[in-house]
Amino acid sequence: DTGVSQNPRHKITKRGQNVTFRCDPISEHNRLYWYRQTLGQGPEFLTYFQNEAQLEKSRLLSDRFSAERPKGSFSTLEIQRTEQGDSAMYLCASSSFGKSGNTIYFGEGSWLTVV
Amino acid sequence: GQSLEQPSEVTAVEGAIVQINCTYQTSGFYGLSWYQQHDGGAPTFLSYNGLDGLEETGRFSSFLSRSDSYGYLLLQELQMKDSASYFCAVDHTNAGKSTFGDGTTLTVKP
Question: Disulfide: which of A7, A21, A72, B45 matches A51 by Cβ 3.0-4.6 Å?
């Protein structure tokens, strides 16, 4: 069990450029989540996959954001035409349901800075 | 809408006990989770309450009262390494979206 892996860990991009983040979840977990976190705030839900199906998507996720999980394993989060307000840490998480409810295991996050 | 309230900051001394409260107003409640996050790190799971009552995990305990929409995290025998942010989070179903509070910054002093 190598944990949830995210890359790149840091990305600086110019406003208007597209960026893509990758997430590799814990291998036996079929649930995968994307959250966004800014300084002083808790993680905000963006979207959720069960296997390859995207089952939930936040209203926060504008049309510029798209997430995929093509084979039910790794996932990508793409942000098109980035804006300064997109600067945040993007957290991927995976989970399995058990005695402790839906325990979410987070990756180390991908920091995005839009300049 | 969804809202969770927790104190923004708490300070305590090494060896003490501290309680971090969380009240919530949400549509759809399945359980309450607690996470710890050190500066620059990822949130890590601490505890979960699906039913009313106390859950104990080592130095950490968590309590839930569904009728009061209230829970707390109790940290005992505080250590310097416990200095971190602590988040309560409502699980709305047994999968899918969780809504997080804005976190409580705990500072442990010698």
Answer: A72
